[in-house]
Structures are given as C-alpha cells and as structure tokens.
Specification:
Low-confidence stretches: 1-10
Number of helices: 14
Number of strands: 2
CATH topology of one domain: MetI-like fold
CATH superfamily of one domain: MetI-like
Shape: flat
Structural class: mainly alpha
C-alpha cells in the first residue's frame, strides 16, 4: 500500500508552514516593495536625467570639439566644428593657457580652503551665541542671518563700495590700499566678503545641531566637574559633527564654483582672483565653447573628487547610509532572538 505524501505547503504537525516558504515569501515581498519604490521614484529620476545627466554628457561631448579653421579643397572658409578628441584638455596644461589654468586652479583651491575654515570657526561661534538663553535672542538670530539673505551680487557691490580707495576700509585702517586692483589685497577682499556673507549659513546648521543636544548631558558633565572647554570639546563638537560636516560640505562645493562675488567685487580678467568658473566664462565669452566646457568638466571632476574624499575622511552621513546600517544591525539581533525562542 502506497503512503500518501503531503503537499509542500501543507502545515506541519505544530500548525506552522515550512521555513523555506516563509523566506521565499519575504523575499518576494521585499522585491515587490523595491519595485514599488522605484516606480514612485521614477519621475524624480527622469527629471534628474533631463536637468543633470543630459547637460553633463552634452558638456563632455562639446569639450571634444573646436571651431573649424582653415580652408577646404575649394578655397572656402571651413565653417562649423570639428572633432579634436582630447586636444582641448591637453592644451589646458601647456603654454599660456596652462599658466592661466594653474593660476585659476590655485585661486579656486585657496579661496575654498581659507574661506571654509574661517566660516566654520565663525559659524560655530555664532551658533553658540544664538543658542544662549539671553534677552533679545530672536533679534540676535535675525540680525546674524541678514548677510546670508543678501544676494551675492548685491553683497559684491556693497563690499566694492567699502573697499574703494576713499571707502570705509581705508578710513578705518588709515591706509590707501587699492583693494579692487589686481594683487594680493584683492584676494583678502574676496575672502572677507565671502566669509561675511556665508558664515551665518554654517552657524544656522550648527545651531540646529545644538538644539538637538539634551541639557541633561551638560548638567551631568558639570556635576562631574567638566569645565566649559571640556564640555565644548567632549560634548558639543562630537554631537554637532553630523550637522557641521554637512554644512562644511555644502560650503566647500559652493566655494569651489565661485564666480559672482569676485566677478562683481574685483572684476573680470584679474589674475589674482580668477577662478576656474571665471576662466570657463571667459573662454565661452570668446566663443571658444570646446575649451570652456573642458574647463567646466575638469572643475566638475575636481569637485566630485573633493566631495568624495571629504565624505570618506569626515564620515559625513549625507544620504543616511549609516543610519540605515545601524537600524539593520539593531533588527538582526532581534530576529535572532525570535528564532531562538521559536
């Protein structure tokens, strides 16, 4: 007599379905959730592809072309553009164009390093002041954020008036410094104007991080005998590090593509303040679009490399990957305990 076999999905004597079927169902549910999430995000991906992906690819393509020169076989002037490959990129590192590139590269890096460091220090100090429970705190916060609300072009015009030969800066210093002339003083003028305008941005994000710190932590530290400096170094800085890292990253990306402030404050074609963005604009203004897009592409790669290095070194959790990993690690021990209990 043959013994009947039970179906694969028949319940066990304990009333439970086999574990293999439960895992398969959970995997299928996870795949369905991912497909549904991709469906909801598809309009966003489409917009990003149109406004970000296509311009980047079009710029890289344009950087491999240059205006056609010379005469054809019939003696007519050649019109249009011709494919030159990587010649536009190699030409950036040699001759006069190479000197202009390295000068703009140094200015861009110098402005970014100097301005971001000063903005971070001043921004944290502003956040600590705005966080204090003092009378008129709302007025203090509003006044601190005024420079950030001023448009950059208006800020450049304001500081150009301050740095005039008969302006406020020279009146205070009792000197006659040509701040807007081509020289070392123009670098300081750009840095001063940039730090004045954008320090409140870092201060605002640092203030948001300060407001998330419980006061009980500081009270416990004071009970243990920690002074103000120890509280700042051991409690404040570590706890506002995520917000501060994101603020510094945003400011670094913004300063690397600096154009409008030195353009309005000092002017175009000034070697002392010429950045990569200004150099690309100058080439495009002279109808050399291939060389201009080559500058823009190199600047794009430079910004991407620095942003990646900063995220890896500083550990800035920009996309929330660390939080997701921690949540997954917390859930896995709970699953293990449930499996052991069953």
């Amino acid at each position: 007599m043959a013994i009947p076999t039970s179906p694969a999905n028949a319940p066990t004597p304990t009333g439970r379905t086999p574990k293999g079927d439960g895992k398969a169902a959970s995997r299928q549910g996870a795949r369905s959730s991912r497909r549904f999430a991709l469906l909801l995000l598809s309009p966003t991906f489409l917009v990003l592809a149109l406004v970000v992906g296509y311009p980047v690819l079009a710029g890289i393509r344009q950087s491999m072309y240059s205006p056609a020169e010379g005469l054809d076989d019939d003696g007519f002037v050649v019109e249009g553009e011709q494919f030159v490959g990587l010649d536009n990129y190699t030409a950036l590192f040699t001759g006069e164009r190479g000197d202009a590139f390295w000068n703009a590269f140094f200015n861009t890096t110098f402005f970014t390093a100097t301005a971001v460091v000063l903005e971070t220090v001043i921004g944290v100090c502003l956040a600590l002041i705005m966080h204090q429970a003092l009378r008129g705190r709302g007025l203090v916060r509003a006044s601190v954020l005024v420079p950030w609300a001023v448009p950059t072009a208006m800020s450049g015009l304001l500081w150009r008036w301050i740095f005039q030969p008969d302006g406020v800066a020279n009146a205070i210093l009792h000197q006659e410094i040509l701040w807007t002339a081509d020289g070392w003083q123009s670098k300081f003028a750009v840095i001063i104007a940039e730090v004045w305008k954008t320090s409140p941005f870092i201060g605002l994000l640092a203030l948001a991080g300060l407001q998330m710190i419980p006061q009980d932590v500081y009270e416990a530290a004071r009970v243990d005998g920690a002074g103000p400096w120890q509280q700042f170094r051991r409690i404040t800085l570590p706890l506002i590090k995520p917000a501060l890292a994101v603020a510094v990253l945003f400011r670094m990306l913004d300063t690397l593509r600096m154009f409008d402030l030195p353009f309005v404050l000092i002017g175009a074609n000034k070697e002392s303040v010429e950045t990569l963005s200004m150099l690309a604009w100058s080439e495009a203004n002279n109808l050399r679009y291939g060389v201009a897009t080559a500058y823009a592409t190199l600047l794009f790669l430079y910004i991407a490399a620095l942003a990646y290095a900063f995220i890896k070194i500083a550990g800035a959790d920009v996309i929330g990957e660390a939080r997701v990993r921690k949540a997954t690690q917390k859930k896995s021990p709970q699953k293990a305990q449930k499996g052991a209990a069953s």
